[in-house]
Amino acid sequence: AEDSALRETAFIIAMGATISCEDRVTLAYHQMQEATLVHDAERGAFDSHLAELIMAGREIFRLEQIESLAREKVKRLFFIDEVEVFLGFQNQLRESLSLTT
């Protein structure tokens, strides 16, 4: 990443990804893509592309909702990895929610 703020965010995400399992690496990759979308929006990359900004915003919202659902499911189950549940939901809903990450 050329921008130091985005680079710092990416490094923080990457460091967290190496803590426990390979699912965390996949999750970190998705988080980096989301951080890049947010960063681009904040820097005005979508200023003349309103439709793309709306699509990016919807995707981020949907991913946050999926993460929330995964957390709720994990609370009801024992010995389940939250990251695994989140990625499972995300993969199953990728097409129907038009997710790119």
UniProtKB/TrEMBL annotation:
UniProt subcellular location: Secreted
Keyword Nucleotidyltransferase (UniProt): no
One annotated GO molecular function: ubiquitin-protein transferase activity
One biological process term in Gene Ontology: protein ubiquitination
Regions annotated as coiled coil: none
Keywords of the record: Host cytoplasm, Leucine-rich repeat, Repeat, Secreted, Transferase, Ubl conjugation, Ubl conjugation pathway
InterPro entries listed in its UniProt record: LRR-bact_E3_ubiq_ligases, NEL_dom
Major site of localization recorded for this protein: secreted
Full protein name: E3 ubiquitin--protein ligase
Similarity comment: family membership: Belongs to the LRR-containing bacterial E3 ligase family.
PTM comment: Ubiquitinated in the presence of host E1 ubiquitin-activating enzyme, E2 ubiquitin-conjugating enzyme and ubiquitin.
Organism this protein belongs to: Salmonella enteritidis
Pfam families: NEL (PF14496)
Domain NEL: 1-101
One GO CC term on file: extracellular region
Active-site residue list: C21 (glycyl thioester intermediate)
The organism's place on the tree of life at top rank: Bacteria
Keyword Transferase: yes
